[in-house]
Amino acid sequence: MNQLHKVWTITRIMQQVRAKKFLGQHFLTDLNIAQRIADTITSANTSLCTTCGEKIPVLEIGPGMGVLTQYLLKNPKIELTAIEIDRESVAYLGEWYPELNLIEGDFLKIDLNTIYPSGSFCVIGNYPYNISSQIFFKVLEYRDRIPVCSGMIQKEVAQRLAAKPGKKDYGILSVLLQAYYDIEYLFTVGNHVFNPPPKVESAVIRLTRNNRQRLDCDEQLFKTVVKTAFNQRRKQMRNSLQQLVGKGNPLLQENIFTKRPEQLHVDEFVELTKLIENGRTQNIL
């Protein structure tokens, strides 16, 4: 393909790539912000190995038109793979970045073990607003293999992820993610640097795996306790959690049940789960 034809082909593909509302697409146009996001992996405070020529395996979710991709590809410390669901974006990326290891598919449906059969890998992206929470729940499934997950999401969601106990944004995602990750709210991004501009602000966050390998309780019950408690977040937990222990159970008189869920940090939810595990009535759950 000669240069003139390639320029024409790329221009034609660019005209075909349109942000699709049903995919939650808003294409970032600010290159400085793209570079800052790309740097969040290698600047993470963790023991990612880049010695002896080893690169960090990084999975980019939804590269779109490649504004973040280009900086990840340029980083000599990163070995990049990307997953893209939009066929028009796949065609565009194929023209601009033929060296990219690109998988066409839905991140939420792909078994990540087929991409990375062993070892650790990091996750990054300018995440679609409409599935960002689902993305983080999937990261949780692979928490023992994902030391760092960073990227850009809706500001509201970022605030929820990073919220501390006692804050109004503190909720289910806050507790479940903070159980296994240290979460940093890095910086806010205005809506004017996107095409098309979203109606809300965005934010860049970073999740870094903490030292907690396992919770000191039944982890499945822990998730149930957290979700059940926050489903009625304005009520004392003696009301919202009685379905897990049985109405009238003396356990509900414990002081911790007089609190509301936003008052408890992760370790207290662990202790609460252990109480329920040890004291609930038979045939519950």
What descriptors fit this protein?
alpha/beta, elongated, 7-stranded mixed β-sheet, 285 residues, Helicase, Ruva Protein, domain 3, 35% helix, two-stranded antiparallel ribbon, Rossmann fold, disordered C terminus
CATH C-level of the largest domain: Alpha Beta
How large is the radius of gyration? 22 Å
Question: What's the overall geometry?
Answer: elongated
Termini separation: 63 Å
Question: Ranges with pLDDT <50 over ≥5 residues?
Answer: 1-15, 281-285
Q: What is the helix fraction of residues, given as a range? A: 25-40%
Q: State the fourth-level CATH superfamily of the largest domain.
A: Vaccinia Virus protein VP39
Short description:
This protein has 285 residues and is α/β, with parallel strands linked by helices.
Architecture overview:
The protein has 11 helices and 9 strands. It is α/β, with parallel strands linked by helices and 285 residues long. The protein has 2 domains: 207 residues, 3-Layer(aba) Sandwich (Rossmann fold); 61 residues, rRNA adenine dimethylase, C-terminal domain (Helicase, Ruva Protein, domain 3). The strands form 2 sheets. A 7-stranded mixed sheet has the order 4-3-2-5-6-9-7. A two-stranded antiparallel ribbon has the order 1-8. Helix 1 packs antiparallel against helix 4 and helix 8 crosses helix 11. The termini are far apart. The N terminus and C terminus are likely disordered.
